[in-house]
Amino acid sequence: SQLSLLFIPHTGIKLFAIFYTLGNIAALASTCFLMGPLKQLKRMFEPTRLIATIVMLLCLILTLCAVFWWHKKGLAIIFCILQFLAMTCWQLIYSLFTAVSFPCLETLLQLLWLALNV
């Protein structure tokens, strides 16, 4: 299990954050096989899904920044949690269109703002 990486001294949290991010990138890439990469990218960046896509991609990038450049393990874990929330929100918006978009995105943006100001 990926959670077992958390218990490796000194590098566990870093490895967890890296593999968690790579897993989410693989999940995004796997949906390209269902509809094709170009159609997937076009749908991801439609106006109704643009904010959710940007927040999700931002969480992926910020997790890797926290691990590699800032060397903040706690921040990496916070960004992993935000990644989970962003991916969940993105998938809800992607499948249910905009029925849940505004409350979900508003909460996620507030959490992201709080994490960046820690």
Automatic annotation (TrEMBL):
Write out the coiled-coil annotation as residue ranges. Answer: none
Alphabetically, which GO biological process terms does the record hold? protein transport; vesicle-mediated transport
InterPro entries reported for this sequence: Vesicle_transpt_Got1/SFT2, Vesicle_transpt_SFT2
Q: Which domain of life is it from?
A: Eukaryota
Where exactly are the transmembrane stretches of this chain?
Answer: 15-38, 50-70, 76-97
Q: How does it sit in the membrane?
A: Multi-pass membrane protein
Instruction: Give UniProt keywords alphabetically.
Output: Membrane, Protein transport, Transmembrane, Transmembrane helix, Transport
Where does it live in the cell?
Membrane
One GO term describing the cellular component: endomembrane system
Which family is it part of? Answer: Belongs to the SFT2 family.
Which function does this protein serve? May be involved in fusion of retrograde transport vesicles derived from an endocytic compartment with the Golgi complex.
- This one is known as Vesicle transport protein
Source organism lineage? Eukaryota, Metazoa, Chordata, Craniata, Vertebrata
